Structures are given as C-alpha cells and as structure tokens.
Amino acid sequence: MTVKALYEYDYPSADRAELYGDDQLVYVYWRGNLLFSSAGCFRVPRAVTFADFQEQFVDGWAASDPDFDAGAVGGWQLFDEPITPDPHKTLEQLGVGHKALLSFSA
C-alpha cells in the first residue's frame, strides 16, 4: 500500500517482506461478523497450501466466535476481488502476497 508522507520519510518499513524470510503476513477479515472489528494478521509460510492456511490459521481464529461453522466459509476475496482458491495451491501460487487482505463470509 502506498503511503504519502507529509515530510521527508527515509526509513525502511518495519514490516517489510525481506524481514520475514520464507514467511509473510496475511490479513484475514470475516465480512459481516460483528464480533471481529478488524482483520486478523497471521505470519504464515509462503508455501502453505490454502487448505492448510484455512485449517491451521483461519479456522482457529474464527472459532473465537461460537457461531463459527468452518463448513460454511466461502465467498473468498483477495482485497476486493472474488477468488475461488484451489485448496491445493500455495498462497504464493494464488497471488496472495505479503500483507495481502483475504476476506470471507460464513
């Protein structure tokens, strides 16, 4: 995301991709859920498959809501674009990059 500074800003980002090695940060937002006021942020391997990402990271986080039903998760979006993620592809193969925002409905 581009940021326009109001003054000379000459510092490297503290959360730049190169600091995470083979991992990356991915934001996940549950659209329409009033319990989660903002996206969760997860440090995940770039090589994790989407199925493993959902099972190991998203489902546990979303289960904080007692009404969460992992089987009802769908409507995935990458930023504002709908996607149908292949569960066997990695996040990298799906175009999910560092600090990307994935959202879903359930």
UniProtKB/TrEMBL annotation:
Pfam families xref list: Phenol_monoox
GO molecular function: phenol 2-monooxygenase activity
Protein name: Phenol hydroxylase
Provenance organism: Tomitella fengzijianii
